Amino acid sequence: MKDDNCIFCKIANGEIPSNTLFEDDDFRVIFDLSPATKGHALILPKNHFRNLYDIEEETAGKVFKLAHKMSVKMKDYFKCDGFNIIQNNEECAGQTVFHFHMHLIPRYKGDNALKLWAPKEADAEELKKMAEDIRGL
Ligand code: AMP
Ligand code: ZN
User: Fold this and answer.
1) Which atom in ligand 1 lies closest to the alpha carbon of residue 88?
2) Where are the domains of the chain?
3) pTM of the predicted model as reported, rounded to 2 decimal places
4) I need a surface site. Which of 83, 100, 113, 132 has the fewest CB within 10 A?
């Protein structure tokens, strides 16, 4: 499953050369072209999926296993102080390339590289209802 118009399909499958940190039958890990911090990398599946909704459960499991393996290696190599794993789905959530990918972002004290969200107040009744609804799906 490849999409001929997708740049990440081309990179993941080696049609466009990249600095590859890891490769196996299912994935390629590359550096982000416009990194948030030194070492910012992306896990790309070799098959084309638009985003998390389209990925099969087995591949989703493999992605997080790989994120774990890469984050441990990268933490040692970059000697970073922290690490973010980010995965955006659809435009309103910040997705700009519509081939599933997971961001691996080493963090350094004082880097001010990401502000993830502005915390709001939760409504206790609403939380209770939403949790019940979702359990029932
Ligand atoms: P997202 O906003 O989650 O869709 O992330 C897309 C990411 O892909 C951004 O961080 C871009 O900097 C990165 N990116 C776009 N094109 C390339 C490319 N050719 N090689 C490496 N990274 C890229
Ligand atoms: Zn693709």
Assistant:
1) 3
2) 7-135
3) 0.96
4) 132
Specify the CATH number for 7-135; select among 3.30.428.10, 3.40.50.970, 3.30.160.270, 3.30.420.10.
3.30.428.10
Mean pLDDT of the chain: 97
Is the per-residue pLDDT at 41 higher than 90?
yes
Residue keyed to tokens 């107040």: 121
3-state secondary structure the chain: CCCCCCHHHHHHCCCCCCCEEEECCCEEEEECCCCCCCCCEEEEECCCCCCCCCCCHHHHHHHHHHHHHHHHHHHHHHCCCEEEEECCCCHHHCCCCCCCCEEEEEECCCCCCCCCCCCCCCCHHHHHHHHHHHHCC
Mean pLDDT for the stretch of residues 54-81? 97
Pocket of ligand 1 (CB under 6 A): 7, 30, 32-34, 42, 88, 94-97
